[in-house]
């Protein structure tokens, strides 16, 4: 595994989205799931009288963290080390995967159990471990479904959101032993019970676990994982060795700060006032939990993102996925269209910043939005995603400003015409004379559906309006002839 890992899209967003739009079942699954989650969130938030104050507090804490991130990371390293944990630093995905692989090899294990983790997905850890002969078993039910399907997650919170019950039953039946598969039905409780029974054997025999963290507390060196199933806690307590891969932006200064996020996150993510399972651990304690704890602090483009005064607000993200559940674009195309571990509105601003100017198809992600602003309205830490999207679009335009462009040439020509009244009027008269043939080419409802290249770049996504029969000035002169003598 090299480079930035699994955050670089293989295809431009318009190409990938067009393929996803052809899947009617996918759109139906997404529509049902996202509407259920966002309605639940709305009901819960309405019951919190100080919700906006909590949002403001979370935003302030995150901005304070970003303002003194190196200091807080060093504080975390010192506190975690004093508590018995070993802290490692990784500049990119390749380095993080190498560190984790070496740590697992040192234990002699050839299998690890995993807690659901965006950071390990980001760096492509499962693939790196497999290349080293080490199998990784996902223990989150949705992650297990995706893994058995040979697929990738489509949602930050609900990785298997793009499947319905019948599809999930078929995936589990194909990936589990025949005796377990025979017990499966479409009932979610039955599906969960069969998977839970199978995973329990893994928990009891695993020697190494790999996890991420929702938060890292600088003052104590503690790590925090929130989850809904309890599988994560099994991974965090039973194995002898625990390896935690944590993005550097996950640090918070104190436990008092953590209190704010433990209210914001469950309400925004699952519509719950309190998360079902919140696990906190600090280093190593003899006779209680893992005997060896390693923390891998991951950069992987975050320092470059931090340097952007506008774009850095993406690092406030607490991975609640509220922005995905309200996004009209995500609801139609799903997470795979974004081609990155981070889908939806947050992925459209985070992925291109993490991969930088050489991110290839990630350059198209800032355009994967209608700029409706719904994502900003629901974000618990008030990331102004529309602002960052426009900013990243401008950055992309500026980067190509010196390159030849038909669009730029056309705009310069229009500027020359519109700077002179006589030229402008002559151009309008010529446009009106050409309107009739254009209507015959493909006009409908006063617009042209297809124009030749390079103007086809406009009409592939929208109609080109035809010039009116007369200008406003001409119309006005006809109504007031005396004023124009």
TrEMBL record:
It comes from Micromonospora echinofusca. Keywords: 4Fe-4S, Electron transport, Iron, Iron-sulfur, Metal-binding, Repeat, Transport. This is DUF3390 domain-containing protein. InterPro entries: 4Fe4S_Fe-S-bd, 4Fe4S_Fe_S_CS, FTHF_cligase-like_sf, Helical_ferredxn, LUD_dom, LutB/LldF, LutB_C, NagB/RpiA_transferase-like. It comes from the Bacteria. Signal peptide: none annotated. Pfam families: Fer4_8, LUD_dom, LutB_C. Residues 308-338 form the 4Fe-4S ferredoxin-type domain.
């Amino acid at each position: 595994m090299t480079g930035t890992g699994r955050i670089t899209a293989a295809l431009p967003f318009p190409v990938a989205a067009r393929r996803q739009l052809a899947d009617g079942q996918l759109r139906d699954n997404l529509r049902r799931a996202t509407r259920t989650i966002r309605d639940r969130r709305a009901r819960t938030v309405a019951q919190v009288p100080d919700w906006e104050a909590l949002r403001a507090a979370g935003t302030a804490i995150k901005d304070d963290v970003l303002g003194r991130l190196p200091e807080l990371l060093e504080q975390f390293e010192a506190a975690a080390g004093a508590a018995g944990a070993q802290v490692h630093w990784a500049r990119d995905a390749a380095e993080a995967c190498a560190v984790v692989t070496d740590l697992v090899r040192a234990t002699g294990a050839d299998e690890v159990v995993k807690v659901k983790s965006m950071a390990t997905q980001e760096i492509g850890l499962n693939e790196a471990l497999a290349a080293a002969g080490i199998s990784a078993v996902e223990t989150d039910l949705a992650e297990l479904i995706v893994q058995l399907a040979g697929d990738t997650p489509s949602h930050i919170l609900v990785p298997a959101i793009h499947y319905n019950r019948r599809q999930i039953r078929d995936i589990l039946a194909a990936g589990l032993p025949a005796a377990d598969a025979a017990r499966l039905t479409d009932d979610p409780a039955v599906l969960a019970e069969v998977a839970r029974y199978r995973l329990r054997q893994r928990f009891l025999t695993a020697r190494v676990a790999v996890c991420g963290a929702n938060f890292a507390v600088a003052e104590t060196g503690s790590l925090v994982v929130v989850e809904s199933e309890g599988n994560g806690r099994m991974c965090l307590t039973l194995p002898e060795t625990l390896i935690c891969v944590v993005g550097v932006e996950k640090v918070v200064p104190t436990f008092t700060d953590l209190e704010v996020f433990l209210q914001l996150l469950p309400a925004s993510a699952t519509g719950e006032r309190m998360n079902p399972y919140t696990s906190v651990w600090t280093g190593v304690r003899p006779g209680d939990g893992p005997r060896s704890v390693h923390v891998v602090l991951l950069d992987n483009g975050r320092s470059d993102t931090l340097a952007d005064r506008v774009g850095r607000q993406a690092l406030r993200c607490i991975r609640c996925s509220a922005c995905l559940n309200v996004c009209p674009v995500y609801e139609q195309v799903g997470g795979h269209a974004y081609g990155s571990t981070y889908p939806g509105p947050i992925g459209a601003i985070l992925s291109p910043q993490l991969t930088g100017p050489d991110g290839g198809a990630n350059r198209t992600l800032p355009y994967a939005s209608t700029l409706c602003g719904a994502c900003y309205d629901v974000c618990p830490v008030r990331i102004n995603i529309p602002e960052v999207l426009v900013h990243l679009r401008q950055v992309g335009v500026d980067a190509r400003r010196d390159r030849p462009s038909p669009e730029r040439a056309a705009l310069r020509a229009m500027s020359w015409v519109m700077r002179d009244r006589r030229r402008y009027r002559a151009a309008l008269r010529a446009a009106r004379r050409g309107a009739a043939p254009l209507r015959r080419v493909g006009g409908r409802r006063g617009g042209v559906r297809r124009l030749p290249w390079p103007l086809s770049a406009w009409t592939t996504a929208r109609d080109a309006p035809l010039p009116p029969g007369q200008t406003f000035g001409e119309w006005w002169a006809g109504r007031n002839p005396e004023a124009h003598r």
